[in-house]
Amino acid sequence: MTFEGKYYNGRSSKGMPAQITLRPDGLRIDYCADEVTDTVHWETAGIHQSEFNDATTLLRYGKFPQQSISVVDKGFREALLQCYRGAAFLKSGYNSMLRLWASGIAVMALSLLGLLVAFIVWGVPALADRVALYFPQQYERQLGQQLYTQLLQGYQVDDAKTAALNGYLSELDTDLDYPIKAAVVKSDEVNAFAIPGGYMVVYEGIIDKMEHHEELAALVGHELAHIQNRHSLRALTRSLSYYMLASVLFGDISGVAAVLVDNASALRNLEYNRSLELEADREGLELLRRNELNLQGAVLLMERLDFGSESDMLAFVSTHPNTGDRIKVLNELIGDRKQPYKKNPGLERHWESLKGRNKTKGSDTLEQNQTR
User: Fold this and answer.
1) What residues contact residue 9 under an 8 Å CB cut-off, 6+ apart?
2) Which pTM value belongs to this model?
3) Basic and acidic residues bias located where (predicted)?
4) Residue range 321-329: average pLDDT?
5) What letter does residue 47 receive in the DSSP assignment?
6) Which domains, from first to last, does the chain contain?
7) d(Cα 229, Cα 131) in Å, to the nearest integer?
8) pLDDT value at residue 312
9) How many CB atoms are located within 10 Å of the residue 246 CB?
């Protein structure tokens, strides 16, 4: 089987007309150079990897300077495949490069996909967390007010107890960067949560469980720490970061605030990691210390929550985990040294109103309770 093509001897760039014959042991090439006809024989083992395109086949032979042939005929390649099936030189370098390029593209695509997934899973929430840290306080206060208003629409607020709680807060030295506004809602649920910008919601259920106002001081100190350190804002933006990213991608920047407000109910179920909870516990303890209140109020609150019935405490424990560990840390922070404390008539008066009883009836203080 013979085909027409061009032969290159490796010493000149000039192609010479040639007749290329396929033989069982290799290729016979009869070429014409300066009107002189000559013949070379290529053994199959010496033929190098071929290059194919739609019409042209290029084969090389030998060592430097390599000989080569070029045949413009689709049938030549098919004839090579039939005559020398499985030969190494039929594994096209062009196709190998194409496969290598395709493999590289696939690896790159998978790598980019992996980076995208990693960014979505870890990067987006982390970015949202950083944004929350630098959120202007003025806007945080405005956002908090909207969240607070939106949340209270789903509750029945106890006006008398709300007034008493805000009176209690006004008597405390909170050292907070925000004005404080709190509400007591009618619910048997044992829970309380902080809202960005200086707002707080406390359930009647958790107040009913308390026996001493120092426990309330520890509770509000804990929640106020979440506000001061922007734990609530950070947790909320992290939990809603994907919705916020979608708003930004679709150019609806104003929709970011709308997403937060529309999901205000998420605040009651926000979960903080162990380090943030312990930070809030430490600062809540510091609030007791600053106001010269009995530090055991913080421990008693945790013990009451830790040993309450499962149904009563489920809501609070689910959003404030590791209660037993936190009691241990609080005891370590308090230590054996006695911290001076004193009665605070103003706090006690608001506490009595909050509990719905007259001051004349009286109630045990934490100090009295401990000395019995």
Assistant:
1) 16, 33, 65, 67
2) 0.61
3) 340-355
4) 76
5) B
6) 2-91 (2.30.29.30), 135-371 (no CATH)
7) 14
8) 47
9) 13
